[in-house]
Design goal:
about 260 residues; alpha/beta; Rossmann fold; six-stranded parallel sheet; binds D-glutamic acid
Length: about 260
């Protein structure tokens, strides 16, 4: 049984690396929809339709668990996916709850896509888990472009990060949620631009633990493990990125057209 993972592009590899870390014997099949990236500026209907296309493909290839390694896709499609497929669907949302528990200043900054922040689900998340806390949201489409282009450090990244963080810092935020799976790849730069007292929260490790909890205790204890990463975009671009995004991890890669 394979674990299928998907994202709008390479961002969800930040989740895949956490799943691989705690389940090294598992067979992972990842599809990055780089031809349609970004999802963050697309309508809920387009995102949902696309996520179904890719999920159907992953299931046809033997996925027994689906991991929606994308906050925007989870927010707009996870309910419909769970109602449609007879298998566990693990999603992820910006980590508002842990951030609200961690803040000392009473202000949290949520970096996420427009699509995630605009959804009714996000408002429910804030109302349920962060009442009494000031939640400041900030879409960072530039972060997605930088990661897709393989730019993880350097002056351009620093400028984009400074611009995104400035209003949050000014408002007194002390906890910063990486609410899009592309953003953890810029974590080193983000942390370097924040005061030492700030906390950065990434949902990837919690998603990986959730996946593990859904498996039989002896699942993949014997397996050698394998990782296949496919893109709907340019294969040469993916192959240039993989060693930087998943250093030291043995990955097979390919290109796959998935059309509506
Ligand atoms: N990585 C995605 C997320 O977690 C979306 C990035 C994008 O395509 O805009 O929301």
């Amino acid at each position: 049984m394979k674990i299928g993972l998907l994202d709008s592009g390479v961002g969800g590899l930040s989740v895949l690396r956490e799943v691989h870390r705690i389940l090294p014997g598992a067979e992972l099949h990842y599809v990055g929809d780089s031809a349609w990236c970004p999802y963050g500026t697309k309508s809920p209907e387009v995102i949902c339709a696309r996520v179904f296309e890719i999920s159907d493909y992953l299931l046809s290839q033997g996925a027994g668990i689906l991991v929606i390694a994308c906050n925007s896709a989870t927010i707009h499609a996870v309910g419909a996916l769970r109602a449609t497929y007879p298998l566990p669907v693990v999603g992820m949302e910006p980590a508002v709850k842990p951030a609200a528990e961690l803040t000392r200043s009473g202000v949290i900054g949520v970096l996420a896509t427009e699509a995630s922040i605009a959804g009714e689900k996000f408002h429910q998340l804030v109302n349920t888990h962060a009442s009494g806390v000031r939640v400041i949201t900030r879409p960072c489409p530039r972060f997605v472009e930088l990661v897709e282009a393989g730019q993880l450090t350097g002056p351009e990244v620093e400028d984009a990060v400074d611009e995104a963080l400035a209003p949050l810092l000014e408002a007194g935020a002390d906890v910063f949620v990486l609410g899009c799976t592309h953003y953890p790849f810029l974590r080193a730069v983000i942390e370097a631009r924040l005061p030492d007292t700030a906390t950065v929260v990434d949902t990837g490790p919690a998603v990986a633990r959730r996946v593990k909890s859904l498996l039989e205790p002896d699942f993949c204890s014997q397996g050698k493990g394998s990782i296949l990463v496919e893109t709907t975009g340019a294969l040469d671009a993916l192959e240039r990125l993989l060693p930087r995004l998943l250093p030291g991890v043995n990955v097979s890669s390919g290109r796959r057209d998935i059309r509506e």
